[in-house]
Amino acid sequence: MKTRITEMLNIEHPIIQGGMHYVGFAELAAAVSNSGGLGIITGLTQKTAPDLANEIARCRDMTDKPFGVNLTFLPSVEAPDYPAYVQTIINGGVKVVETAGRNPAQVLPYLKDAGITVIHKCTSVRHSLKAQEIGCDAVSVDGFECGGHPGEDDIPNMILLPRAADELEIPFVASGGMADGRSLVAALAMGAEGMNMGTRFMVTREAPIHERVKQAIVAATELDTRLVMRPLRNTERVLTNTAVERLLEKEKKLGADIAFEDIMEEVAGVYPKVMLEGDMDAGAWSCGMVAGLINDIPTCQELIDRIMEEADGLIRQRLEGMRAA
Q: What's the CATH superfamily of 4-207+296-321?
């Protein structure tokens, strides 16, 4: 399938693996890229820039296909050494960067000067337009369904994607609720040039996370996610567990007086415990509503091949068959 995104990123299929904390390691990124999509290493999962350099080198040993690095800009008292991470990405010969969080304008000139394609994750049309204005090459438009941070506007993709298509000139991919060929065809119909999948790629053979995490997502339905940290305007969609329900009780009890310190037990340092050790109740961890569409644990190759076969069938048979003679 040929779209503006496959042409821009030099990939076979318009499918991108989203950057995910303690999930986006070299093993998964390489497997996605080898299957014709674009794999993404999560930059800040690597504790230092030299660690990221090593992860990029490991990925390059596993694939000769394009892959990218996610770099998320977080509000923090002790910010990561972003200049060092950016230089590491450039030195590593990475050609695609997925930025997320705050406006990436501070690093954009360095990335662009190095010939790197920048895709910025956005949860609204206004933020997408800003990304276009500052020079991002593409955006990932994240609807309210997405795991992780859906923003504060609560606009689902059935509305958000056509709105983005109406306003944007640069290409965009759909993110949030993406799982199969139906997702891809729907995203294309609404103006996207491809799709970004996070939760779905967590549940693959190559995802280097604990088996209990994968089984929890397979067992979950679309009703099993919760929105936490809404009072702090840092909303995150997570899979429910005992820690999440405890967190929600704190939010209910403390109301507008809640502070981040009140919920640190449920959100700080959670990801290594969950993703690597399989401690399913360690705290709140991101998961999309798309869990309701995930019922198996295929390889990345099997998953992407299935998506593209299903998409082709939908376009050539179901949709074509509906045309009036």
A: Aldolase class I (3.20.20.70)
